[in-house]
UniProtKB/TrEMBL annotation, chain A:
SUPFAM superfamilies: MetI-like (SSF161098). InterPro entries: MetI-like, MetI-like_sf. Gene3D superfamilies: MetI-like. One of its GO terms (biological process) is transmembrane transport. Belongs to the binding-protein-dependent transport system permease family. CysTW subfamily. PROSITE patterns: ABC_TM1 (PS50928). Residues 66-272 form the ABC transmembrane type-1 domain. Pfam families: BPD_transp_1. This is ABC transporter permease. The chain crosses the membrane at residues 7-27, 61-89, 101-127, 147-168, 213-236, 256-277.
TrEMBL record, chain B:
It comes from Jiella avicenniae. Belongs to the binding-protein-dependent transport system permease family. One of its GO terms (cellular component) is plasma membrane. The keyword Transport applies. CDD domains: TM_PBP2. It comes from the Bacteria. This is ABC transporter permease subunit. The chain crosses the membrane at residues 20-47, 68-94, 114-136, 148-167, 187-209, 216-236, 242-260. Signal peptide: none annotated. It is found in: Cell inner membrane; Cell membrane.
Length: 285, 270
């Protein structure tokens, strides 16, 4: 029995090696890279320096881009929650074939590449595209909206990309709320608003919190959407980092920027988790 | 179910409003995909929706384009290798994770899903430097390793979930009847977890097929995957050929979703 257990543990070696060699080592390596001096010919030199951090933290330009990235991601996460909650609610009440169909509907976009979905928005929001045509037909606007290469479209497309990540955890949390709890409060005369505010919202928080964190972290580091739909006018951290790495080949500076982005993301998530600790505890009780 | 029914039953107008809201949100989810598919069949010369007439000319144009077809072939090849390698490694890892308990099991799970939890951008940047250092920079093999890493958690999560459904008593029964570990796995466990393994392979393939950022940083010289080729095409040409290319990848995803639905049901998949 002891022998078979050891054998089983050995089976994990390739996977651990994969994660360690191709993920942990490279990310550690990136931290080291951020302290390298710039190279004359190669993308980096042999000596170590703090100059990239001094530059990144000392330059207002980088702070501006960082703050824009963090705020945009926060906006995306909140909008995503607003869009996802009704969908999750609807999904959590479905069963059988209907539920299967709805899962497929929500998961299909998840299984389609981000680039493809972003491209779809380019067609939808074109000057003579379906969105402008229908808004004009409905009399809501008279001039077509110019959305392509604006921050608005980047946010819209990011919300669209991340909705499934928010719907699924909230759906799980909603499914865990006992129906009789809602019934009991309705029968005792609670209004629909009170039931939502005092029962459903707090009890679904165990789905809302991880959903918000996941979407925030993914949105902060999203590259494709701002690169395709943001155009040249608006810079975000990921587009800046990739430009440093593939355009100007300043690898140490790019690494320092990536680390600055990661640290500030961890900080935001940490503060958010601490602030919402009480809400999570309440839902568990 | 009944809770909602009572909540909305005596306030019909709100129920109707909610139904309209839900319908609009589903439209929001599907509209970009529907427009792409529609635009790919246009008989006109521009990317537009609704399309002008019906024609397959842009699919012909797609298959006549060397850069796009090469991208498709490279993506299919990398995706297939990724699916095979990740499912084998993930099945082994899932069997290992099964014998761990308590805190160790938690750490193992976390480690195995790390590529999902850390933003792709960071992994991509780290791998760019690392592959360069070990001599795999700008090679197909390096790109392949990046795809295997990024898709591994999908296979691992699917297979672990399937393995959890197998009662431990089967293992013991088979052993007490004299089967070796390998025989037990081959003849008892594997058939039972097969749907989960296939689902893992499908998810790994689709994830690999859709990866962008990591491919951008690790791409070999002159070798574009389909998403990379499509991005370049959109930047410089913006013709309905792009809609045809995108439709091909949407069709692949739909086939994947349908297979998963048939095998295990999406409800269990998520």
């Amino acid at each position: 029995m002891i022998k078979s257990r050891h054998l089983r543990l050995l089976l994990g070696v390739p996977a651990v090696a994969l994660i360690f060699v191709f993920m942990i080592l490279p990310i550690t390596n990136m931290v080291e890279m951020s302290f390298r001096v710039p190279g004359a010919v190669d993308p980096f030199g042999d000596d170590y320096t703090l100059m990239h951090y001094a530059r990144v933290f000392g330059d207002g330009f980088y702070w501006n881009v960082l703050v824009r990235s963090l705020l945009t991601a926060a906006g995306v996460a909140i909008l995503c929650l607003i869009v996802s909650f009704p969908i999750a609610w609807h999904l959590s009440k479905a069963s059988g074939m209907k539920a299967a169909l709805l899962y497929a509907l929500i998961a299909s976009p998840l299984m389609t590449g981000v680039l493809v979905r972003n491209f779809g928005w380019m067609i939808v929001t074109a000057l003579n595209g379906p969105l402008n045509e229908s808004l004009i037909a409905l009399g809501i606007i008279s001039q077509p909206l110019r959305l392509l290469f604006t921050q608005t479209l980047v946010i819209l497309a990011l919300v669209h990309v991340f909705v499934p990540f928010m719907v699924l955890p909230i759906n799980n949390a909603l499914r865990n709320i006992p129906d009789n709890l809602v019934e009991a409060s309705v029968s005792m005369g609670a209004s629909r608003y009170r039931v939502f505010r005092d029962i459903i919202l707090p009890l679904s928080f165990p789905g809302i919190q991880p959903g918000l964190i996941l979407v925030y972290v993914l949105a902060v580091a999203a590259y494709v959407t701002p690169a395709l739909l943001g155009g040249q006018m608006v810079t975000y951290m990921p587009t800046l980092i990739i430009a440093e790495l593939t355009g100007t080949f300043r690898w140490p500076l790019g690494s320092a920027l990536a680390i600055m982005l990661s640290l500030s993301t961890i900080l935001v998530v940490g503060v958010f988790t601490a602030l919402t600790w009480r809400l999570m505890e309440r839902a568990r009780a | 179910m009944s809770g909602t029914a009572t909540m909305f039953a005596h306030q019909r107008p709100v129920g109707l409003g909610f139904a309209v809201l839900i319908a609009l949100l589903y439209v929001f989810l599907l509209v970009p995909l529907v427009t792409i598919v529609g635009a790919s069949f246009t008989a006109g010369l521009l990317i537009e929706f609704p399309p002008r007439g019906f024609s397959l000319q842009w699919y012909r144009e797609f298959f006549a384009r060397r850069d796009l077809v090469d991208g498709l072939l490279l993506s299919l090849r990398i995706g297939a290798i990724t699916a095979v390698v990740t499912t084998v490694v993930a099945t082994m890892a899932a069997l290992c994770g099964q014998v761990l308990s308590g805190r160790k099991s938690g750490w193992f799970q976390l480690g195995m899903t790390l590529p999902l939890l850390v933003p792709e951008l960071l992994t991509a940047v780290g791998l760019l430097f690392f592959l360069f250092k070990i001599g795999l920079g700008k090679t197909v093999l390096g790109l392949q390793m990046g795809h295997i890493l990024m898709s591994f958690p999908y296979a691992y999560v699917s297979i672990t979930a399937a393995l959890r459904q197998v009662p431990a008593s089967l293992d013991e029964a088979s052993a007490s009847l004299g089967a070796t570990q390998w025989q037990t796995f081959r003849m008892v466990i594997l058939p039972l977890i097969m749907p989960g393994v296939v689902m893992g392979a499908i998810f790994a393939f689709i994830n690999s097929f859709d990866l962008y950022t990591i491919s951008l940083l690790l791409k070999p010289l002159g070798g574009n995957t389909l998403p990379l080729a499509l991005f370049d095409f959109l930047t410089y040409e913006f013709k309905p050929t792009a809609a045809a290319a995108a439709t091909i990848s949407i069709v692949l995803s739909v086939i994947g979703v349908a297979l998963v639905q048939k095998l295990v049901g999406l409800q269990r998949a998520f």
